Hints:
alpha+beta, 5 strands, two-stranded antiparallel ribbon, three-stranded antiparallel beta sheet
Amino acid sequence: VLKMVKKAVVKKMNVKKEKPLERKGTSLEYVEKMVRKIYLKMGNKAPAVKKQFLALQLVLFTGLKRFSDVNRILVKDLEFKEDNCLEVWMKRSKTDQKSKGDKFVILGERMRNGASVPDIMRWYLKAMKLKESAYVFCHIDQKKNECHQDRFITYAEARRVMIKEQVWLGLRKISLHSG
Length: 179
């Protein structure tokens, strides 16, 4: 009996310790602030890590995708359309049961500040000098400010950068989730 009571008490204590994960995606207001400070104000002077942070947040937000769906996208998987849309091919996704791959489209509509996600993605790809075979979201050596094009960014790396950038941007807690 004492053993069962002890197990119940320990379980009750552990339940109290568990906090539900707070996963809050980025808001449109935050996206516009990121674009304003990184793309419009810093432009080409922005370090590679800030450019990548912005590009990743925009794809997650506008594509409504999971980090694990987009971190392995290659440059050759992107297609810029005539109507300023960006079509993205994913070889795999968490919801792709048959591993057939899937496309999603990011519209080219302009934000209040005049920027569009496809325009920012073109700027990002050009600034990073990524080859067709490179990962769009490659591993960045922050000390050298260079991209290792044959290595994709991990969740841990992206999260570390996101935490630094949200402080720099003056944003409250954001995540690597689409919304």
